[in-house]
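re: the backbone from monday

yeah here it is again, tokenized this time
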């Protein structure tokens, strides 16, 4: 019995888990990457707001410095995301690399939309509208979960599949 417990403990450690209730390291990394993707989107919105102020001639000196800071921050965040994506996904074929990046972002965003729907439902006085908002939140979280499952499917596929070998087209022609 003790050997089984040792094997289980070793398996958990290999997944990066501290204890059985913890998620594995790759799953934590997926959420960290989703947060980086979210930061990028928020920074992009902030950059757009500063550009609007610059175009309107508002506090030009301050806004030019702020724009420079935001752009440099955006660059750093993108570099960090790009540095860590390869730690999870080895599928660069067929554009899956870029799809993974967008899956992480969409997964995170649907979770945020669901949270906002719940917040709006809690504030809503009309019972019918409250139910509608809660139903929307449920759908948002289900979509986020589906996208998360797709990410994990890619992870399992990439770790359990030999690299693809592309044969020259001549080898596929009938003889």
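seq for it, each position gets an aa:
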């Amino acid at each position: 019995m003790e050997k089984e417990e040792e094997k289980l403990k070793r398996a958990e450690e290999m997944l990066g888990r501290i204890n059985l209730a913890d998620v594995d390291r790759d799953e934590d990394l997926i959420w960290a990457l989703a947060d980086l993707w979210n930061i990028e989107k928020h920074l992009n919105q902030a950059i757009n707001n500063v550009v609007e102020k610059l175009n309107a001639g508002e506090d030009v000196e301050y806004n030019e410095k702020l724009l420079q800071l935001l752009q440099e921050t955006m660059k750093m965040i993108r570099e960090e995301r790009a540095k860590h994506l390869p730690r999870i996904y080895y599928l660069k074929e067929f554009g899956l690399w870029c799809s993974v990046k967008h899956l992480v972002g969409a997964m995170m965003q649907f979770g945020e939309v669901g949270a906002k729907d719940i917040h709006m439902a809690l504030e809503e006085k009309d019972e019918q509208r409250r139910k509608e908002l809660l139903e929307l939140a449920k759908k948002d979280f289900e979509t986020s979960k589906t996208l998360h499952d797709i990410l994990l499917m890619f992870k399992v596929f990439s770790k359990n599949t030999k690299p693809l070998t592309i044969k020259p087209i001549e080898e596929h022609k009938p003889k």
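The chain has two domains: 27-88, 89-162. Residues 27-88 form one domain.
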